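Entry for the shared binder. Reason: the reviewer on the internal report wants the predicted structure included alongside the sequence.
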Amino acid sequence: MNFSRSILVVSFGFTVGACSQGTVEPTEAETNTAVEQPLSAFNDTAAKSRIVDFVKAATTPGSEGFIPESDRIAVFDNDGTLWPEQPIPNQLQFHIDYLKSVAPDHPDWEKNPAIAAAIKGDLSALKKTGMDGLKSILSAAAANITEAEYQAAVQTWMDTARDDRFNRPYGEVVYEPMVQLLHYLRANGFTTFIVSGGGADFMRPWTEEVYGIPPYQVVGSYGDATYEIQEGKPIITKTTGGLFVNDKTGKPIAIHRFIGKVPVICVGNSDGDQDMMQYTHASLHPSLCVILHHTDAEREFAYDTITVSGHLQTALIEAREKDWLVVDMKRDFKRIFAFE
C-alpha cells in the first residue's frame, strides 16, 4: 500500500460506523429550488440532460425507466465528490489541526517524528515514516476520546477553520452543482446517502447543515468503541481497533449492511468508488453511475492518476465500457462553488 492510498484508508478509519433509520423529507424551499431551477450550476451540456432525463423517467409512472419511490436510493462519495480532497483530505487536515491545538499537553509527541513534523506543517516527514507515522497521527488525534468530545472538536473546526486555497470555511467549499443534485434528487423522491471512505464520526456533525443529509444517512469507515456508565451517564469512547475501511469493496458491503437496498444512482470520483458503481450498475432497476472528473485547475484542481488522493484510472476505463456518465468539471460545471 503506497502512501497516497494510506492517507485515504487510514486517515478515515478511527470512527464509529453508520446506520440507516429512516429518511428526511425535502424542505419546501429545497423542493421549490430544485423544481424551478434544476441544476442551475451545471452548464447545459449532455451531462445535465442525461441526469434530468433519468430522473424524469424514474419518476414517471408507466415509463420504462420508472422506479418506485421506495427503491430510489442514491449514494454519494464525499471527498472529491461533494467537496475537495486536495492537497490532502480534509479529515487528515482536521486531525493535524487538532493535534496542534492540544500539543502543549503532550510534550512526549516531540519524540515522534511524524507527529512533531505534522504539527509544524511539514508533511514530508509523514511521507518518510509512511503507514506507521500516519497511524500514530490518527491514533494520537482520535483514540480514547469520547464520541461527544470528538464531535464537538469536529464542529468547532468546521465553524472556525478555513481552506487555505479558497480562504473560506470548509463548509462553504463544497461543489454547488453536487449540492443542487442532492436537492434535486430529494425533491423527486430519492433518498440520498453519503457512502464515503471518510469517518462517519467526522462527517456526522455537519453533513445535515451542509448537504441536507442527516447523520443516520452517513455511511463511513469505523473502528471499535467502548460503552460504559460514568457518573450515571452513558459514554461511548473511540478506540483504534477493529478497523473497517469503507473504500473499494468495502463500499458495497457497507451499503448492504447499513442501507439494505441496491442503489439506483451512484456518484463518485475515483477508483475507490468503482466497486459501488458496479454494485449500482447491477440493480434490477435502471441505474445511473456518475464519475466526477477533476479537470479544472483554474477553479479547483486537475488530477486523476497523479494525485495524493482520488486516483482515477480503472473506473474511467469501465465508465467507457458500461456507459457510465463522466462529468467533466471544466466543461459541465457553470459554477463549482456557490461563492464564485
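Summary line for the report: The chain is about 40% helix and 15% strand.
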